[in-house]
Every structure is written in C-alpha cells, then in structure tokens.
Structure prediction request, 201 residues.
Amino acid sequence: MKNVLIIGATGTLGSAARQAILDGTDDKLTLFARSTNRIRIVDDNREKVISGNVMNDADLDKAMAGQNAVFAALSGNLKAYAEKIVAAMDRNNVSRLVFITSMGIYNEIPASVGASGNLSSNPVLQSYRDAANVIEDSDLNYTIVRPGWFTGGPVNYQITRKGEQFGGHDVSISSIADIVMKLVDDDALYSKDSIGVNTPQ
Prediction:
C-alpha cells in the first residue's frame, strides 16, 4: 500500500488514473486540484481531497506530506509546474514522479504516424519538452509518459522507450490510466525513463 498524490485530479487523465488506482491497487490517494468542489469521494478510507495551486509552495508542501508517489497530469505552463513539483518533492523527500507530457517532444513520431506532430513542426509542444527536461535533470525517480491522442475504448497499448520511434497515433484514456496505475505502484517500472504509449497498429 502506497500513498499517492494526484496533481490535476479533476482532469480527464487525473480522474481516469484515480479510478484505475482505486480498482487495481490498495493505495491511498490524495486528490489535489484548484476546484475540488467537483470531486466526489468514492472511498472515505482511501481518498482525501486538498484544494490548492501547483504554483503555491505551501499548498504543494501540504499535499506532499507523507506521500510515496506523485502523478501529475496538467495543462498550461508545464515547465513552471514541473519546476515547482520537483522542488516540492525534493523538500519533502518524495522521489517517485509520474508526469504526463506528449508524443512528439523528441521528434520521435515517424512519417507513417504523422511527423507533423513532432516538436520540429509543432511549437506548441515546447512547454512539454521543457517540462521533460526539468524532470530529466532532477534527481527524482521519474517516469515521463508521452501518450498519443486520447480516445475512448478498452485497455490496449504498447510502450516505446526514449530514442525509439513512436508506435501509433492514438491511445485510449483507459490505457494511459492503466500504465499510470502500474507506474505509481512499482518504483522500478520504467525508472528514469520516458515512455511513449499508443494503441498497437
């Protein structure tokens, strides 16, 4: 049993990962978000809610206390968020971080999948790459997750490692939630790695 902090708990991936972790592990969850009024506790014995801003050190320190792993699924200024999260984890002696970025940040998407989705063609991805750089430069036990385009559907995915070509365009939200559940529960799984997640072609 671990204590897992979900940052961005009300988002699509935060919500999906929350349910996967509740269903697939005995871990306890701290749900961190700006608008916690949208969160309905499923299990009083395993969930608690903290309202806060990821840019506020005091909010993050309160949420980090006693955690074993952190899952972050955010949008916006990802580099700044990553810097704040890494610093808070260091302050609170929490080492395991699972962080969502995007496919294409290493220009790893081949033409057969759609190379226009690479950073070299899509500057919107720069903040995702900058966040990944911050995390990779840290001393944390991190796994960066680079999903394809979100779709519905069952759990069905393949993993590619950093330096390998990305395997496909799409991936189901349930698939991302499944790998996140496994990553927060296993500190050694894809440790200090950056993984692509896509539906097999």
